[in-house]
Structures are given as C-alpha cells and as structure tokens.
Design a protein that fits this description.
This protein is an alpha/beta fold and about 270 residues long. It has one domain: Spore Coat Polysaccharide Biosynthesis Protein SpsA, Chain A (Alpha-Beta Complex). It contains 9 helices and 9 strands. Strands 1, 2, 3, 4, 5, 6, 7, 8 and 9 form a 9-stranded mixed β-sheet that branches. The longest helix is centred in the C-terminal third of the chain and has 18 residues. The radius of gyration is 18 Å and the shape is globular.
Length: about 270
C-alpha cells in the first residue's frame, strides 16, 4: 500500500479550527499517517489522538519554529517508509478529496518534487500564493502596497496573477500552507533550513527544490485557508518576518542574483 504522511505544526491554536481540518482529512478516506507537532508550552492537544486514526502526537514546548518542527515529522515519516508527505497549516480545510488527485499527479510525474493546490479565502476568492523569486524591494513593496500607481502591475507579475486560472504550471515559490512533498526529492535537496524560525522557510525550500525538480501549482483541486497575515498585525511577528527576510537574502543574494533573473524569465514564458 502507498505510504502517505502529513504534518501539522501547532502553537496555541483554536481547537475548533483544528477539528475542521481533521474532519476534512478524515472525510477523504485516504490512509494517512498524521504527525501533530505541538510547539505550545503545554500539551494542549494531546487528546486529539482520539479523534482520528493514525495520529502521532509530539509535544515540543521548546518551540524551535515552523520548519524545524515539520522536519521532525518528515524525518520520522521517511524512517517509516512514507513516499509522499503533506505540509498542512492548522487553519486549512477542504470540502472534497484533494489528497488523491495530488498524489496521482505526482506519481505520474516523477520530476515533480513539490506541489500545492489552489488556495481560497473562505468567501471562495483566490489567494495568489505562487510567486516569482523575490527581489528585496519586492518584499517591501508587497507589504506597503506602494507606490499605488505601479503596485497593480507589480503584484500581477510577482504573484503570477495573469496565469490562466486553470493552468498547471511550474512556479519557483510555493506556499507552505498546504504543500505536497515527494520525499525522494526531499532526501536529495534536504528539508526546511532551520535558520528560519518562521516565514521564508517555504521560499527557501521551494527555491532549492526548483533547482532540481519541478515545483508545481495544481489548480485542479482547492483548499480553504484562514489567511491571518500575522506579520501585518503583530510587531513581534513583523520582527520575525524581517529577520527571516534578511536570512533569505543573505543566503541567496540581495541585488546580484543571476539565477533569480534566469529562473523568473523562464517562469514568465509560461504566460
């Protein structure tokens, strides 16, 4: 039987929201080994293992961060023989089986290392999450939404908004809110970089994966995401965002990045 796993990282989350996600997973009737990595100070969610089969609960009160926590699950999944692994935010839910179509696509396309579905707001509108590789100024411009005159042109390009809605395409940045990983590819390129506590770890992994495998946006299926945009509302989270951005550009290059230019040019040819 095909071995599929998934991990959810928790930190003082809303139990009702988490149960909505578990209900969605349960309704697919797909056999998934699910890792709950609870970074909360106390083991608030340990009783959740009674809600759904095949849950492995791990309490990690040191709170090492999003990527490190998922790496714990990925490592355990690989050791248990898992072939495909989903990274899922606790504020995700879905109405239909999105698991099977994504797995089927990845099985048929062995050059795909990573993929994500269409992600929607609760009202059904699209969250434009696939992106080009960013320049430093693009990160600032997206946060400030300034200058207004050029913002729309910029954001349409950066977030690939002009791609046909139903097109499957190879995007160099995929969101970590709902991601399917080919664990054979992960063993090749490595998991999340533990230098990132939160934010930009998905940018970093996407870019490393995109260098050797396809990183696919797959709009044939959709999930709903309670996008919180925490860095826009919390000064503490904003500081973490800035530190992670600096970490990312220190690693990949600030203003001189020939690979970024070449990859982005190639991606835009898919338009």
């Amino acid at each position: 039987m095909l071995q599929i796993s998934a991990s959810i990282v928790l930190y003082k989350n809303d139990l009702k929201v988490l149960l909505n996600l578990l209900k969605s997973i349960k309704a697919t009737n797909v056999h998934i080994r699910l890792y709950l990595i609870d970074n909360s100070p106390t083991p608030e969610f340990k009783d959740i293992i009674n809600y759904i089969e095949n849950i492995i609960y791990i309490h990690n009160p040191s709170n090492p961060g999003f990527g490190v926590a998922h790496n714990t699950a990925i490592s355990k999944a690989i050791s248990m023989g898992s072939e495909y692994h989903f990274i899922i935010n606790p504020d995700i839910y879905f109405d239909n089986d999105v698991i099977t179509p994504m797995i089927n696509y990845m099985q048929k396309h062995e050059d795909v290392g990573m993929m994500m579905p269409e992600v929607l707001f609760s009202d059904g509108s699209i969250q434009f999450l696939p992106k080009l590789l960013p320049r430093p100024f693009w990160i600032i411009k997206r946060k400030l939404k300034m200058p207004r005159k050029s913002y729309d042109t910029f954001i349409n390009k950066y977030e690939l908004r002009e791609m046909p809605k139903d097109r499957i395409y190879n995007a160099p940045i995929l969101s970590g809110c709902f991601t399917l990983l080919n664990l054979r590819a992960i063993e090749d390129v490595g998991g999340y970089d533990d230098k990132y506590f939160m934010y930009f770890e998905d940018f970093d992994l996407s870019r490393r994966m995109h260098q050797k495998y396809k990183t696919i946006y797959f709009p044939n299926v959709s999930v709903y995401h309670g996008y919180a945009s925490g860095a826009n509302k919390s000064f503490k989270l904003f500081k973490i965002f800035i530190v992670s951005a600096i970490t990312y550009f220190n690693k990949w290059g600030w203003f001189f990045d020939k690979e970024r230019k070449a990859i982005n040019k190639k991606v835009l040819t898919q338009l």
